[in-house]
Write a structure and sequence with these properties.
The protein is α/β, with parallel strands linked by helices. The chain has 15 helices and 17 strands. It folds into 2 domains: about 300 residues, 3-Layer(aba) Sandwich (Alkaline Phosphatase, subunit A), CATH 3.40.720; about 120 residues, no CATH class. Helix 7 runs antiparallel to helix 8. It is globular, with a radius of gyration of 23 Å. It binds zinc ion (2 copies).
Length: about 475
Amino acid sequence: MIGFDAAEYRLIEQWVREGDLPHLKLLRDRGVHGRLQSPIAMGDDAAWPSFYTAVSPAKHGRYFYHSIRPHSYRLPFWSDSDLCAEPFWDTLSRLGKRIALIDVPKSPLSASINGLQLADWRVHGRDHLPCSHPPELAHEVLARFGDDMTDRLGTEHALCGHGYRQTYDYPGFVGKLLKGIDDKLALSIEWLKREPWDLFLVVFKEAHCAGHKLWHLHDAAHRSHPQQGGADVDAMKRVYQALDSALGELLVQAGTQTSVIVFSDLGMAGNFTANHLLDRILLRLEWAQRNWWGRCRLAWGRFKLATGARLLGKDGTNFERSTRCYFDVVHGEQAGAVRFNVLGRDPKGLIAPGAPLQAQIEWLSAALMELEDPETGRKLVNDIVRTDQAFHGDHHDRLPDLLVVWDRSAPILAACSPRIGTIRAPDPELRTGGHVSDGWFVASGPGISPGAAGTVSLMDLAPSVAELLGAPLNGVDGQPIPELCR
Ligand SMILES: [Zn+2]
Ligand SMILES: [Zn+2]
């Protein structure tokens, strides 16, 4: 299995058609291909666990790189112990399958892998420092190739940060991505030669990083697309082509008797969001809904938040959230995330579960759908996702309650509606590419006949691989893809 993290489907389609990705084309011509549905309105932090546990976010419990803990208003960074489901490689390991894993994003180091695992070496948004089983492998890899070169936030190697800068070392960034692909290919070839693995799984991060940082160079319709000549508008294509070349070499090494699945978890598009406006919108809506006593409580919460943070150096977030019926929780730019303050679930819940909560969800959803751009009248919200309806499982208390999917056609610098009036904010100047749902896969090998598989779930890949290995997974949400497992 070869993962190209967040490699956009429309780009793959175009460049396969135009002959720029010959190895992917070859694999598609002789195999089966289709789309992969990722958890709706969620990003890579939820998608990767859904891939490797084959269950929905309401079962594995991860929605972002912060986590919601039941009975708390705090959102600490994700910790491995928060994961509520088992990676499929642990199940396969118990059945004696030999496994090699390189850099599956957002995945913990397995306690029981039957083989080799390298985690968080060159991963976009890694959870830990590089680590491995056995432990000395990570040291060897770091000594030979060095650490990550683009994604180490807080260091000089943070080229793949969240912001947009007009003056930016694009050639340097692209060079490091290309070198990263070369290094990971070299390591993968060595590992492939070690033994005839039952499952060999490597994930390349470079399409993800390129998508976030280079989108405007590629997309002529983007507002930051360079107007003068001389800009490297093909930089993203070169990254995808380097991934395709690496695929070619891996295919040679794997041989024609090996089943190969190439896949991406998510896509990319222009990065426009109203997440920076959402909490103010929610506050205004709640203010409009409350009586004088509710408004006093809200004002007191805001006062404690402001004075705690600014005067006393304390964080008043806990208190402020306890005074509100709903508030914004941190999420990726593709969707705003809203949490209700529910009696019995949250420390100082204000809304009773059942009918009162349902009524509040409906009221707020309708109010958010009314939001418009005050200048153009453009509708700002494409969809509201209720996580209790979209995801099946017992851990809804670890997810936001609503995900607000923004219109992505242009920047969002203001929002208005009859209920909130108008709210404006400065341009957040974000990285120019951001995620859209859904990935894709291509598979080829003995017993896989050519064709199109349509759309399946990202959760179906692991059960398909397990089925191919004669070790079906039980109790997961995904199902073997029939076209792969005839
Ligand atoms: Zn991303
Ligand atoms: Zn990155």
